[in-house]
Amino acid sequence: MMKPVTLRFHRRQAWLCASFVLLLPGVALAHERFIKHDILHPLHREFFRLLDPNMVNIALRVTAVMAVMLALWFLRDPLDNFIENKLLLRLRGKPKQWVHLVASFLTDKPVEHLWFKRIGEWAVIFFMRCPALVLMFSAVNDALVMPSYPLEPSTVSVFKYAQVIMAIGIITQLFLPFGGATIFGTFLYLLYAFDWKIAVDVLPVLTVAIVYVSSPWVSHLQVITTISKQQMRWVRVLLGFGFFALGWMKIYNHDLTIGVADNYPSVLDDPLISLFHIGTNPMFKRESWIVAFALSEVLTGFLLMMGVFSRVWSAFMVYVFTKLMLVDFGWAEIPHLYPIGAFLAVTFSNNLSDEFYRIEKLEEYEARRGKTGLEILIAIVASVVIAVAAIFPILYVLTLVEHP
Amino acid sequence: MRFSNAKEIIAIALVWALVLIVYDRLFSKHLFAPTPAAVAKFTSPQVTLWMSHVGCSRGLEEVLQAIKTLPWLGEPEVVEDVSKPCGRGLMVNVGDVAKADFMELRHTLRNVGVVPDEVEFGGIPHFALIAKVSQLMGCLPCVQAAREAMTPKKDPKMGSTFKWLDSARVGEEEQAITAYVRYGYGADVGELIRTLDQAGFPPSSVRIMVGEKA
Fold first, then answer.
1. How far is the C-alpha of A222 from the C-alpha of A1, rounded, in Å?
2. pTM for this one?
3. Domain co-membership, A380 together with A308
4. Do A185 and B169 touch (CB under 8 A)?
């Protein structure tokens, strides 16, 4: 079992890291992806130059969904109390127990069930060791960390062997803090050697590095099966931020996004993404799809980053990535085993938290005073403000910048 | 049980990143050295040709004269390779990229009885090659076959193909195959022509596209 560990960065160290990252040159030396992405039909590039009515329409839908999810989150305790203790008051025995378990699962509270804990332990082992498979896969494909980073023939051997050594360290869980630090170091190198746009792809890989660096040095002597609350917070925030950033990158780098869709047209008809762009101008179908796809990822990433229904979103992402891997793209997407592992670890964690404790404290205060109406009002206003702030400013900035 | 601290992690990460960067700077080499420094130094587009047996049985002078008939090429510089006593390499600046046509170069050399083993082009950070072909219009299987031909493959003995290729586009209407070259790389033009020949799409011209579209 692991002790909860807090990884603290002093202000000076944090600034040192940030400065180092910002000073790195953003040289575009490779901009391919590991699946086909040639644009087969031209894109209306002017669509992305202004807040097009279709774009605003999609953004409003996503904002509405986000606001509803946030409001439900802020009101989860009174809602749970109402359902379990008033609506289903007469329920007894096993059914009552199952309702409680489902409610606990949906509201990110600890799920006190043996099977849930066992699966959670296995998910942590999978999450912690799966990067070894990804590294081996990349080494076999002459790439670094993931196939987005092809290696030069002149340097390929050393990088391949280095990855195999790292993979052996991960499988045997040897000196995990060292392994985690080298993953961060490799990320810095990737920022230097490749285009920064590709570096966004590798952000989710850093989540496991967080757990590695906060593991004991003698990590090989124990089987790590739990992730502490503090570690899980870092995992959730970094994983969520990775997808939040990936979502915005889909709009910024729209040619790449639509290039993939042109080669795998079935993704254009995804029913869940269609909910966000159905009814928009058919002339801009592909452009609207890009925005809908991107903002659905922003929605998921933001809510995960903030710890809002983390289990629901993570379980949903397990489904999405499994579908992409098995149905849409096939073998080329096998490295998606890694994010599947990360999302499984979050889904089956009993150490989840969120980032809205101040709003929740305010609500609790009003609830204790018996002002339920004010409690609901705070939840609704806060939800709308947060959702608008999460979507519209960045969307607007993206209409002003030059797209690649 | 001892845990790491932030200082240790930052130190290891920075040292590791530094090691990788230094190694990359020292040992990463390719046709036209795609390192940031090399990309910044790119000034002149250049064709490199390698020809077997030109130095022994055939007149090198004849080849040089043939190359001079192409107005878009500059003065050739002869390179010798000690491992190939009869082989010769030529490095030629491309004076007018817009008029460059590698099929024209191929035909010109063919007329003097020479087929180069390798034809490489580089010296521009970002460009694409456009091969004009026929048979694509209204033939979906042909388009698919052309796409398949342009897909990089991995052969356990021969290694990977199209290592320099970023992506390719098969244009049915314009009857052309566009090979987008990876940023900072040179293109193996010989490999492109050979692949299209073998796939049944012999190009009538192979030209260079530069600028934003590439």
1. 7
2. 0.67
3. yes
4. no
SS (H, E, C) A94-114: HHHHHHHHHHHHHCCCCCCCH
Q: Are residues A279 and A375 in the same domain?
A: yes
The tokens describing A388, both together, are 């608008």
Which tens digits make up the pLDDT trace of A291-345?
A: 999 999 999 999 999 999 999 999 999 998 898 888 877 777 788 888 899 999 9
Contact status of B79 with chain A (Cβ, < 8 Å): no
| Structural domain count, chain A | 2
In a domain, A61, yes or no: yes
Cross-chain Cβ contact B34/A3 below 8 Å: no
Residue A13 lies in a domain: no
Domain range for A44 = 37-79+247-404
Which class does domain B40-210 fall in?
alpha beta
Q: Within an 8 Å CB–CB cutoff, is residue A157 touching chain B?
A: no
| Residues of B whose CB is below 8 A from A216 | 1-3
At what angle are helices A310-323 and A93-106 packed, to 10 degrees?
Answer: 80
| A155:B167 CB<8 A | no
Give dist(CA A294, CA A200) in Å, integer. 14
Cβ of A154 within 8 Å of Cβ of B28? The answer is yes
- Domain ranges, ordered by start, for chain B: 40-210
Q: Between B14, B21, B182, which is nearest A30 by CB?
A: B182
Residue A362 lies in a domain: yes
The answer to whether B1 contacts chain A (CB < 8 Å) is: yes
User: Contact, A212 vs A180, CB < 8 A?
Assistant: yes
Question: Do B39 and B184 meet the contact criterion of CB atoms below 8 Å apart?
Answer: yes
Question: Does ipTM come in above 0.85?
Answer: no
The confidence score (pLDDT) of residue A1 equals 41
> Is A32's CB within 8 Å of B167's CB?
yes
Same domain, A266 and A364: yes
Cβ contact, residue pair A152, B8, below 8 Å: no
Residues in chain A closer than 8 A to B168 (CB atoms) = 38
| Distance separating alpha carbons of residues A219 and A226, to the nearest angstrom | 13
In this structure, are A203 and A323 located in the same domain? no
User: Which residues, numbered 164 to 193 in chain B, qualify as contacts with chain A under a Cβ-Cβ cut-off of 8 Å?
Assistant: 166-169, 182-184
